């Protein structure tokens, strides 16, 4: 059985959808899931997880072990998708939300369709547009670019494999080029982040207050992150 048949991970509107094999041994599944997450720990950190086990009967102790695997890596198990009465009862015992895989088909398909270009005249890459302010405690993950039409408050976090554009105040933590792309950029109309990351490089805002508020762009030059006027 291929690794993708044992564990499948994809982004959905509310976080990550993790689909697990209905037949493979549970220890092999949890080991493979841990390995997949560890490969991209920074990208997955803080994600809310929906797990789809389909018709597989998962007793409480196995679901507890899965929950622990995720929590040790900074992920939160929120929803269990199942058609099994055993799994449903296990999830209820752990105060986890439950639904059937069919309940989420529309939301998953909408998320996929929203990232597909429609007969583009110019080549482009996928991205997500968020039309609201990200408040403390919110985390956004994207396998592409992220545009926020609003502010990113202290305590909020964005992790993207591509570029990040903030059409507002950036006060939280953002990580562009999360899979190692040092050509990624971070732009904001008012840039005073708690932390900036591009690839494996990290920068923080100076302690002194800025006198002039202006749009700025962060990019990698040499081996450090440089912030300069944008536009």
The count of strands amounts to: 16
Query: Total domains, how many?
Result: 2
Q: Compute the separation of the termini in Å.
A: 51 Å
Quote the beta fraction. 35-45%
User: Nearest-angstrom radius of gyration?
Assistant: 20 Å
Q: Identify low-pLDDT runs.
A: 102-118
Helix content: 10-25%
Quickly name the level 1 CATH class of the largest domain: Mainly Beta
Q: What average pLDDT do the residues reach?
A: 84
Oligomer: single chain
How many helices? The count is 6
Overview of the structural elements:
This protein is an alpha/beta fold. It folds into two domains: about 5-110, ACT domain (Alpha-Beta Plaits, 2-Layer Sandwich); about 120-230, Pectate Lyase C-like, CATH 2.160.20. Helix content is about 25%, strand content about 35%. It is built from six helices and 16 strands. It has helices spanning about 5, 25-40, 40-45, 60-70, 85-95, 105-115; strands at about 5-10, 15-20, 50-55, 75-80, 95-100, 125-130, 140, 145-150, 155-160, 165-170, 175, 185-190, 195-200, 200-205, 215-220, 225-230. The strands form three sheets. It has a six-stranded mixed β-sheet with strand order 6-8-10-12-15-16, with no helix packed on it. It has a five-stranded mixed β-sheet with strand order 1-2-3-4-5, with helices on both faces. The radius of gyration is 20 Å and the shape is elongated. The N and C termini lie far apart (about 50 Å). About 30% of the residues are buried.
